[in-house]
Amino acid sequence: MPESSAPDARPAVVLLSGGLDSATVLAVARSQGFACHCLSFDYGQRHQVELAAAARVADALGAATHRTASIDLRAFGGSALTDDALDVPKDRDEAAMSADIPVTYVPARNTIFLSYALALAEVLGSTDLFIGVNAVDYSGYPDCRPEFIASFERTANLATKAGVEAAEADPHLRVHAPLMDLTKVQIIGLGLEHGVDYALTHSCYDPVDDAACGRCDSCRLRSKAFGELGRRDPALGPAPKPGNWGCGG
Amino acid sequence: MPESSAPDARPAVVLLSGGLDSATVLAVARSQGFACHCLSFDYGQRHQVELAAAARVADALGAATHRTASIDLRAFGGSALTDDALDVPKDRDEAAMSADIPVTYVPARNTIFLSYALALAEVLGSTDLFIGVNAVDYSGYPDCRPEFIASFERTANLATKAGVEAAEADPHLRVHAPLMDLTKVQIIGLGLEHGVDYALTHSCYDPVDDAACGRCDSCRLRSKAFGELGRRDPALGPAPKPGNWGCGG
Questions:
Q1: Distances in Å between the alpha carbon of A48 and those of A13, A132, A202?
Q2: What is the ipTM of this complex?
């Protein structure tokens, strides 16, 4: 059982997708003593199973609250994650993944997600937002870069009542991106240190019967990183047993 | 009938609330030759009638398209515009309006709205966003100030594929706020020059039977400005005729 937050714990808003990275971020925020208010998004993504994963992760890691906001990105189209007419790329090697901005790009996604987090932070009286972006494996998402996060933080400090009321010295509101400079292997190591059960997480772009496909860019990055730690990605289920193909006694 | 856009007109995204200010902005953007793609929001506001006004205004001013995105601010609470348990202030003088951040504040509203506009701009291949914020009558909304708009523009140029692909010289994407330094009287004058029919617009915070209440901060600011131009606000309907109280002939 996770420890509950201290009564005087400062509130933080944690963006939680249900994937490996944001689960790690929640564990880090909890370890820093924050009462974590998690925010997930239902944005018409194909992989609704990740929202169930977010709820499991929030519960397992002792979040104070967990909200899912419905947002309407589908009207804008333009991404394989939200547009059924496009195919998710499979079996690409890392060179292909990093060569261009992927078809799975959702326009302005982190800008929109951080805007909602800012709204919730203001209502809760929180000055700390956490997001699991990462510049090492960002593979072409411009809104995962440190310069974007720093710029959003400056904008957020100008956008809110709290920002106006704060002294002009330090930025009042912080956008924490604790995974920014970590490799996937380092992220998983950090999460394991903080008790994340990665079997609860879900990162697949194209799940089959709610199970990770094992072949999309996201599955391949995870699987490779667990392999470097000498582990099998627990989201892929138990390893197949050689010889156990139902052909004998 | 408004002229339609030239076939080679550059696309712009125009945030359109159905109110006086954004109608004026749409007229200004049209006059600059943009093909205007208007974006309105259904965010659980009490005054749904403003969405009908937005559709009328978009049509009357020759918008290329008009979309309404549903967004879920009500889950966050904290504002009289979205929370039925709070009262909209009435009959306040201008000193009271400007004394504090009003109870009608929606957390992070313009940050969220501009984020959606950015997403639509990216899908449309547009590099021009228009918003009707105004620092003269902003009465305490921090996200109506020029420093907020400038900061959002910088963030937007870091958030998108277009920003990444653009040369590092000029900002690629512009957030236009053509009303920023205008008084309400000047805004109305500008709109009248560009053919805005203000009878189609709706700004009231607390309409009664879809009609402007005439008493909330927004109605009072409009009404006073039309008065200074020697006009009656057309959104208030025909002026009552003295003596015509149904008591004779």
A1: 22, 19, 10
A2: 0.83
